[in-house]
Automatic annotation (TrEMBL):
Polar residues bias: start-end ranges: 1-12
Pfam families referenced in this protein's UniProt entry, alphabetically: TPT
UniProt cross-references to InterPro entries, sorted A to Z: EmrE-like, Sugar_P_trans_dom, Tpt_PEP_transl, TPT_transporter
Lineage: Eukaryota, Viridiplantae, Streptophyta, Embryophyta, Tracheophyta
Species annotation: Solanum tuberosum (Potato)
Identification of the protein by name: Sugar phosphate transporter domain-containing protein
Ranges of residues in domain Sugar phosphate transporter: 109-398
Subcellular location(s) per record: Plastid, Chloroplast membrane
Tagged with keyword Transmembrane helix: yes
Keyword terms: Chloroplast, Membrane, Plastid, Transit peptide, Transmembrane, Transmembrane helix, Transport
Length: 410
């Protein structure tokens, strides 16, 4: 069964001669560039404004003919028109079923992205910790991860998997501070992972909302509400309680994780402060790709001067390490490192920042639990309680931010 719909298709023609009307026959002309629609006569009589036109197939109306269109006396024989032509087309009934299935498809895609985000994060933390335990050079490890990420970005652009951007000099200058803090943030995270357990590093990194609130107030003038401040109390208290009872605690790992929080949240603040002009705006994936390449070049000289070239097979064999195993684990960690951040930005393009923050909180819980199980990390009841309180505070913070966002939209 088919239904009839109305479609508008432009009919453009050049008038040959001006048409002279006969008598006072009325006509109807629709010009899409004019706002009101008027019916009038050619003899100068007053025109009457019509707000809307409805086409109906009711044969009882005296103004409609058998085909359901408005009858106009003395029609103009010429086909020239400077407006639009109305045609009836057949539309299958199944055409209306696509919008109903589209939300379901988007939900499945979004759920798959969240699953990949968590999976890549779990594998990154496990393999990265194994590499850092055997090869305690976090600067070189971080440099290798940026190198693999840069190769993936170049391949993505070369194979046209994602559009290659056209970057101006002004944009590069604006992105440079973001790349610098991005480099430091990942470097400090690897330094912390090399010193303390994975679960403790992520427990400390749960304090990211605290740094976000402080930096936003200092540099953006965005002062928190009482509810936001209240949600920060369990975060700070939980991290403090977990730190007091952590078996692998040391100050180097603790302050490295705190520095990672500071630099990562500085990146978010800088992106709001500098990347505000329309001509400088880039989509999230393109921005992340450019930052990855810039981080590689920023960290390269520092890695060579501080730790030297220690990733060669000769050096690793002299240190008594399994070269193939270390290279394999490093490659998997680097691929997962780039993949989980790439997927994170893909999710951020589909959901609000508040929803992304809630997903990040759940991700941290998943990473902590899996790392404790995999590495058999000893967790005391008080330590587990402190971690749980901190993560509950992060979730509460996300809920408060969601309420604040809804209040702004209303």
């Amino acid at each position: 069964m088919q239904s009839t719909a109305i479609s508008f298709s432009p009919s453009i023609s050049l008038p040959k001669k001006p048409h002279k009307p006969s008598g006072s026959a009325s006509f109807c002309r629709f010009n899409p560039l004019s706002q009101p629609l008027r019916f009038g006569s050619l003899n100068g009589s007053a025109a009457r404004k019509i707000n809307s036109i409805r086409c109906s197939a009711d044969s009882s109306s005296s103004k409609l003919n058998r085909n359901g269109w408005i009858s106009v006396p003395a029609p103009v024989p010429e086909r020239e028109s400077d407006g639009v032509e109305v045609r009836a087309t057949s539309v299958p009934e199944s055409a209306g079923e696509a919008p109903q299935s589209k939300p379901m498809t988007e939900t499945l895609v979004l759920g798959s992205l969240f699953g990949l985000w968590y999976l890549f994060n779990i594998y990154f933390n496990i393999y990265n910790k194994q590499v850092l335990k055997a090869f305690p050079y976090p600067v070189t490890v971080t440099f290798a991860q940026f190198a693999v990420g840069s190769v993936l970005v170049i391949l993505m652009w070369t194979l046209n998997l994602y559009k290659r951007p056209k970057i101006s000099g002004a944009q590069l200058v604006a992105i440079l501070p973001l790349a610098a803090v991005h480099t430091l943030g990942n470097l400090f995270t690897n330094m912390s992972l090399g010193k303390v357990s994975v679960s403790f590093t992520h427990t400390i990194k749960a304090m990211e909302p605290f740094f976000s609130v402080v930096l936003s107030a200092m540099f953006l003038g965005e002062f928190p509400t009482l509810w936001v401040l209240s949600s920060l109390l369990p975060i700070v208290g939980g991290v403090g309680l977990a730190s007091m009872t952590e078996a692998s605690f040391n100050w180097a790992g603790f302050w490295s994780a705190m520095a990672s929080n500071l630099t990562n949240q500085s990146r978010n603040v800088l992106s709001k402060k500098f990347m505000v002009r329309k001509e400088e705006s880039l989509d999230n994936i393109t921005l992340f790709s450019i930052i990855t390449i810039m981080s590689f070049f920023l960290l390269a000289p520092y890695a060579f001067f501080t730790e030297g070239v220690k990733f060669t097979p000769a050096y690793l064999e002299a240190a008594g390490l399994n070269v193939n195993q270390l290279y394999t684990r490093s490659l998997i960690a680097a691929l997962c490192f780039h993949a989980y951040q790439q997927v994170s930005y893909m999710i951020l393009q589909r959901v609000s920042p508040v929803t992304h923050s809630v997903g990040n909180c759940v991700k941290r819980v998943v990473v902590i639990v899996t790392s404790v199980i995999f590495f058999r990390t000893p967790v005391s009841p008080i330590n587990g309680l402190g971690t749980g309180i901190a993560l509950a505070g992060v979730f509460l913070y996300s809920r408060v931010k969601r309420i604040k966002s809804k209040a702004k939209t209303e």
